[in-house]
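Team,

Forwarding the record for the chain on the shared tracking sheet. I've put the sequence and predicted structure together so nobody has to dig through attachments.
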Amino acid sequence: MNKTSVPSIDSIERQWFLVDAENQTLGRLATEVASVLRGKNKPSFTPHLDTGDFVVVVNADKIRVSGNKANQKLYRRHSGRPGGMKVETFQALQDRLPERIVEKAIKGMLPHNALGRQLFRKLKVYRGPEHPHSAQRPQTLQLNPAASSQ
């Protein structure tokens, strides 16, 4: 009888990855990053444990969307007060807080429970090419080389 091995928390090795979002499509980048955060790229993947790695996303202000989504895609938030709904287009949010677009896309692809919140803490998103995590020596993660050449 084969037994399924569950990795102990001490045996999980976490790496740091650097993703350049310049000229990447939002959804395609988000699925790959969510998979790495979750740990699905490792043979020790366990659905109920945090086996994933840290991911640093840079150049969030240069991410793109296909079609006319820049003008049509809406981001909504609510203050909790009556009449407190705020609606903003992709382009307006891109100008104001481009990090939030990437964070929201990736967060929606993580589990919607305590594990997902723990995984989301390992995501670091920055507007420009600089980030304060150079001491961790992140490895460059190639997502889709064909998309970046367009």
